[in-house]
Amino acid sequence: MKYERPALHRTIFAVDVEGYGDQNRTTPHRLALREGLYRALSRSFDDAGVPWAACRREDCGDGVFVLVPPEIPKGLFVEFLPAALAVALHRHNRTHDPGARIRLRMALHAGEVAYDEHGVTAPAINQTFRLLEARPLKEALKASRGVLALITSAWFFDEVVRHSDGLDPTTFRPVPVAVKETRTTGWISLPDRPYPANSSLLGNVTAIDHYRTWRRFRRHAQVLADRDGPV
After folding, report:
1. DSSP strands (E only) in the chain
2. Strand pairing partners for 201?
């Protein structure tokens, strides 16, 4: 097999709309939802410092799959993007009927991605979609009053989240992931309705402030509100 170009280590991002196939949604609802989703993604990526136009994107019908250029820092995807995306979703939902409103599951992983004439393939891509379908993630979003539930792979948590100065990793919760052939651990956070900090989950990490993540979201929301109007 000849590949289009050598495999590259890429950040892998995927989102899925909660209840996209709900029978109460009409085709006009889904069209408005999809338009709002892409608007929210493009704006939040750019706001977080991740150029949307530079990313490889694939439509999944009820979600979007994104491969990010390897030179883009991975920390942006947990320090800035979730808050920016949650703000964009709140803004969309405030101006649309219930059938066109959006609540998202979001998954993050990274790995070597190979290219051929048909597209891309990688075990890491498969794992990202398994994380997105994990029952604990669905249950976390269903139980939350927020609009976004994030799950990272164990690798992404250990290599990126745990060492970040821009967020509190103790607001993440480890969960078992068992989807098809995948058996692994994921780490869930709720960016706009965060779990309380819990230092006992991460031996050498101290919970500085139980509300730090929430305050970070509100500060980000205020910046965008000052620019674009209230959330």
Report:
1. 5-17, 56-59, 63-68, 104-116, 119-121, 148-153, 173-179, 182-189
2. none
Rg of the chain in Å (alpha carbons): 17
Q: What is the C-alpha to C-alpha distance for residues 65 and 131, in angstroms, rounded to an integer? A: 13
Supply the pTM of this predicted model.
0.85
Evaluate the CA torsion angle 181, 187, 189, 195 in order and state its sign: positive
**Mean pLDDT per 10-residue interval, the chain, length 231 residues:** 71 98 96 97 96 96 96 96 96 96 98 91 96 97 97 97 90 96 96 83 44 50 58 58
Going from the C-alpha of 67 to that of each of 115, 175, 203, the distances in angstroms are 12, 24, 32
- Asked if 178 contacts 138 with a C-beta cutoff of 8 angstroms, the reply is no
- Residue 92, amino acid: H
- What does the pLDDT read at residue 205? 41
Residue 174: other Cβ atoms inside 10 A: 14
Would the CA dihedral through 207, 208, 211, 215 be positive or negative?
A: negative
Residue among 61, 142, 72, 155 nearest 107 (CA): 155
DSSP string covering 30-93: HHHHHHHHHHHHHHHHHHTT--GGGSEEEE-SSEEEEEE-TTS-TTHHHHTHHHHHHHHHHHHH
Q: What angle do CA 162, 192, 92 make, to 5 degrees?
A: 130
